[in-house]
């Protein structure tokens, strides 16, 4: 009789265990950088939080397939991604969501009707985040490589995402924090209309910043002063102080000099070395291909220098003695925390997809009302942390 009773209860036990595990694995677990862990409940209820603070969730590389999604995508990867977004929203209570490119797995190859199915899938997965301020930038999988970069196609794609102009760039301010997003794919191109449009955006934002800082007349007088670079970029002589510019958002990481500094963060499996190569990339694990550009691709050195000079990315302060200028990028599928030679800190956001990682994740950054920034927390599935502790 006892054996019969246990057999009858076994399906209930299995289903209950699965439900508990499903809830557990879809609840985000976060770690402070560089090496400090924290309790998520304490972090969410932090008394130091101010109504003026801006808590931003940054994700990248969702790699959605739309109508081309297979059974495993629909009933496992996208299902758990949707739950992960929902649990993250409920537990972390962010004020804004930033998506740093590669919404689509191969958007550059898709017809517009298939792209619409990707967008529908994207909206379904975001769930409650659709009620928050949302900004999406373009990745190489979304628009393709330089040789096939079409301005009309890019314009159509950008028209479906809030806050992007026809070139794939955007600029906005929320809670007195300025953000600028650039079409990093166009920055890889030579004589391309989109590249010239991106340059115009950078110059316009640089002029606007100087007008705010130095006064309208003086900034306008300086706007005619340009310095030529050997690679064809030009910039105005810029008297802004370092760190006075916006938070910069890109899909490709900026070029990293071999002499620049990379923080060693023991809580994560891999980072990018100074040459830009990822030792534990999705390619080496046999996952989905990299798309038009390899995972080591960065913004060219000349364009990187141009951006640093023109935009002076914003300062963030983690404590009284450690200050950073902050840029967020993606593309590599892996987390990286890098400091450039001029002191600018660049955080690379990991992939939010089970297609290329067995531990998808995201970044949380809190921008304080006093222009300081808590930088950043990396969050992911709980089973990732469990494996790393073993």
Automatic annotation (TrEMBL):
Any one of the GO BP annotations: GPI anchor biosynthetic process
Keyword flag Methyltransferase: no
Superkingdom: Eukaryota
Transmembrane segments: none
UniProt cofactor(s): Mn(2+)
An example Gene Ontology molecular-function term: metal ion binding
Protein known as: Metallophosphoesterase 1-like isoform X3
Record organism: Durio zibethinus (Durian)
């Amino acid at each position: 009789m006892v054996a019969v009773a246990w057999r009858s209860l076994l399906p209930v036990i299995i289903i209950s265990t699965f439900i508990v595990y499903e809830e557990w694995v879809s609840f985000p677990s976060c770690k402070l950088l560089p090496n400090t862990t924290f309790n998520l409940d304490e972090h969410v209820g932090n008394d130091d939080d101010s109504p003026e603070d801006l808590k931003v969730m940054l994700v990248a590389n969702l790699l959605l397939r739309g109508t081309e999604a297979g059974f495993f995508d629909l009933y496992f990867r996208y299902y758990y991604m949707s739950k992960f977004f929902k649990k993250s929203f409920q537990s972390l209570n962010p004020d804004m969501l930033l998506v740093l490119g590669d919404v689509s797995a191969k958007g550059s190859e898709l017809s517009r009707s298939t792209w619409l199915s990707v967008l529908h899938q994207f909206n379904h997965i975001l769930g409650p985040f659709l009620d928050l301020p949302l900004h999406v930038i373009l990745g190489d999988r979304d628009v393709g490589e330089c040789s096939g970069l079409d301005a009309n196609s890019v314009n159509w794609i950008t028209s479906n995402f809030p806050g992007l102009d026809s070139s794939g760039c955007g600029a906005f301010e929320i809670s007195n924090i300025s953000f600028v997003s650039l079409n990093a794919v166009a920055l890889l191109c030579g004589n391309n209309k989109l590249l010239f449009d991106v340059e115009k955006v950078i110059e316009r934002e640089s002029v606007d910043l100087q007008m705010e800082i130095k006064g309208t007349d003086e900034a306008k007088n300086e706007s005619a002063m340009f310095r030529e670079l050997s690679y064809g970029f030009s910039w105005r002589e810029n008297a802004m102080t370092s760190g006075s510019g916006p938070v910069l958002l890109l899909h490709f990481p900026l070029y990293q000099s071999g002499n620049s500094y990379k923080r060693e963060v023991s809580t994560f499996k891999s980072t990018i070395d100074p040459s830009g190569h990822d030792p534990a990339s999705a390619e080496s694990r046999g996952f989905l291909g990299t798309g038009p550009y390899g995972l080591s691709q960065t913004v060219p050195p000349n364009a990187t220098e141009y951006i640093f000079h023109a935009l002076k990315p914003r300062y963030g302060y983690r404590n009284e003695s450690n200050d950073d200028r902050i840029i967020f990028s993606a593309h590599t599928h892996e987390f990286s925390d890098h400091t450039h030679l001029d002191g600018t800190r660049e955080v690379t956001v990991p992939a939010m997809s089970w297609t290329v990682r067995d531990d998808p994740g995201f970044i949380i950054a809190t921008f304080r009302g006093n222009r300081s920034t808590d930088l950043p927390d990396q969050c992911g599935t709980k089973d990732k942390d469990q494996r790393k502790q073993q």
